[in-house]
Amino acid sequence: MDVYTLPRDALGDLMENWGQPRFRARQIWSWLYDRRVDSFDDMTNLPQALRDRLKAEATLGTLDLVTEQTSRDGTIKRLYRLPDGQLIESVLMEYDDERRTACISSQAGCAMGCVFCATGQMGFARHLTSDEIFEQAMHFARELERRGERLSNVVLMGMGEPFHNYEASLAATRRLMSDLAIGARHITISTVGLVPMIRRFAEEGLQVKLAVSLHAATDEERDALLPVNRRYPLSELIEACHEYVEKTGRRMTFEWALIAGENDTSEQAHRLGQLLHGLRCHVNLIPLNPTPGYEGAPSNQDAVQQFVDILAEYNVPATVRVRRGIDIAAGCGQLKSDVVKRQRRSEGSPTP
Questions:
Q1: Where does the pLDDT of residue 352 fall: very low under 50, low under 70, confident under 90, or very high at 90 and above?
Q2: I need a labelling partner for 98 at 20 to 30 A (CA). Which of 15, 19, 57, 305 fits?
Q3: Reported pTM
């Protein structure tokens, strides 16, 4: 039994079933989410017999750490094994302004097939439960608490498409707000552009940020990079984005992975500026994080600056995101891909 999966009332019911006063549930809840301990032994105001039973019959989460890597820039990347053997990744990024941002996964693998993404290259295994999504952030929050720091931001930009796993992603998001006290405006959900889910998300009444992975400004070019565009072409996607902004009053973010010689040209920048002109939005430019399954390379500094300057002509603000964790393969899906390949080599199996 994973205690992180128990709502407050269910924890109270469990204590009553165990012959304990119901207030023990409040004590356990405080240890879990206020003090964020990682051991039942640390719950010192509980009777020893109750702590012993919790250790015997319950766990603090189900994610099993397979490996961890730390970058020169302080980025921490982890690979977890789920109870059924599936592997997922989580990343913690630390910034000089004291932001501590967790990038967490919503699926094991991904069905969207984006050609430059290591997760997209490996295909889809299964959806994560809301508890499995939440626990990734919980681990980082616990460890930062011990250092006297706090998890300040969470982005659902790890493995998987959050809107393909909509219910679980939204349930986990609500727990991030209620149980970890992370403000809605410090949480971002990223999608490749599932139009019906964007419209549905606009009705949720949440102040959570929405980011759309765009990467191309024409259907022909976007079809080649993001197969989902064949189902939801740019005209439908941008219309849904306008509706989202009008409904919520919130600014959107568009993610654009800059690929040298492909989507970093002045022509592409002008097309993007024309596409987004008049939409309340911001463009996040990210020089490509190369993957073995895709031959593209990151744009150089001059091309990046030219792209930013051209977008400004259309009153479309853009910033360049600093690439982090490059030396530890921190891009989405890269660590899992490396580990799986090593396992296949050690087992003598062919590596694709």
A1: very low
A2: 305
A3: 0.90
Q: Tell me the one-letter amino acid at 314.
A: Y
Of 331, 330, 306, whose CA–CA distance to 318 is shortest? 306
Could you please state the CATH topology (level 3) that the domain comprising 64-346 is classified under.
TIM Barrel (3.20.20)
> Which tokens hold the place of 265?
């040209």
Q: What is the pLDDT of residue 323?
A: 61
Query: Quick check: is 332 catalytic?
Result: yes
The catalytic residue among 16, 89, 161, 241 is 89
Q: How many other C-beta atoms are found inside a 10 Å radius of the C-beta of residue 236?
A: 15
139-176 residue pLDDT tens: 999 999 999 999 999 999 999 999 999 999 999 999 99
231 and 224 Cβ atoms separated by less than 8 Å: no
Residue of 143, 149, 332, 347 marked catalytic: 332
Identify whether 347 is a catalytic site residue.
no
**Domain locations along the chain:** 3-57, 64-346
DSSP 331: S
